[in-house]
Specification:
alpha/beta, 5 strands, 61% helix
Length: 501
Amino acid sequence: MTVAWLSAAVAVALLMAVAGRYGYFRDELYYIALSKHLDWGFVDLAPLSPLVLRIVRSLSGDSLHAIRSLPALAQAAEIVLTGLIARELGGHRPAILLSSLSVLFAPVILANANRYSMNAFEPLFWMGCVYLLLLAINREQSKMLVGCGVLLGGGLENKHSTAFFLISLTAALLLTRERRLFRAKWLWIAAVIIVLLCLPNLIWQYQHDFATWVDLTNVRETHKNVELPPLPFLLQQVMMMGSANLLIWIPGLGYLLLHRQGSHHRVLGVTYLVFLAIMMALHAKDYYLAPIYPMLLAAGAVFWEMLVAAHARLRWVKIALPATLAVAGAATVPIVLPILPPERVMPYMDALGIKIPRSETGMRSLLPQYFADEFGWEEMVVQVASVYHSLPPEERAKTAILGGDYGSAGAIDFFGPRYGLPQSISAHQNYYYWGFRNYTGESMIMLNWSLAGAQRWCQDVQIGPSVFHPYSMGWEHYSILTCRGLKKPLAEAWPGFKVWN
């Protein structure tokens, strides 16, 4: 396992070296806001990751290096877990090395580890469960299933999509010889643990009229996300995992499903197929499959190790494959990590023949969204401060700053205090539940609002300075509006402002 630990150390060093290169990601600003309002649930995510961030912030502060240290360590743990899975599938040092490099250089995994979000931690819950399941199968230790219950229950409290992994794994157990595990009491104990760990969030959902389901329904009905047909969806899997990794995870899937020795762990291959089918049927974002690939990468590494061991003439593969992964990975790292100056990102992608990935229909930017959403936030706050402080003192005291989305609201809340701004209000996502902070609507500075939308609600609207950063997302280019005289009291108008998408 030494090579896995070394790969993990490389991952942490690389991620920490670039952690402060650009700026705070939109969702990170939202997570920081959520961490100040802890609850058993939120409109658009489960409660665990804001809680963890609250702990990180209390111990280390709010710097980019502080809040991004945990995602970096999570990728390191994911690499080690993948090595452990490869070993449990029968692999030795060559397989552990190959699988570790595969995870280290997988573009989507590396990108997720570069910012704080629930996505960075999701693979730990899934692959931790896979590892314990392998121990239960290989060593006839069904007690390990209790650990699976703890991990899957925790995973559901981290991100709700773990439910689809749980469904897929359950289906795979029923469809393979591992259905025998349903006779073990430990599996049912694990099921009870999952329910108990999920119960606080389920209660919250019930108390809030299943807000997350409403949010997801709105996304689907408005066709906010790019909905790919099956073949483009599969091609996007290849791109997000890296073209070189195709040489690992496709053989890994075949090994689990078709090879005589790999069939001992066929449950993993079937789990992937069921999960893939569910995600395609739901028109999910392509990266939702990212957490499931380490087990296929581990299986593929074991397959190559066995193949080389059985055929002496293929000994060159033992060096060529890791070298290919390292070279291809090094070439793609500047696409997913903020290594290059922003003006050089697109020329570099063009040179490699890679187009900007788009997961939402309204995306417009000069950079991929995962980079673009790190630009322009503090500059926007500075402009808002100029508008706010230009108001007469008596008007300023009753002026609310209304963010049209959680990005602008989160930026005001995070950067605003250093520029003398009050906390924002917003009706987007979970900000809606935090309300309008006793403002009446007499005077509001409106961010991310169209002029027509503001005029529909306000008696008088003044157009202020434009918010524009060349590298930010297109939807962050707008004019700051000042609304005077809301046509209804803000308390009455608030439900009409609500945006869950």
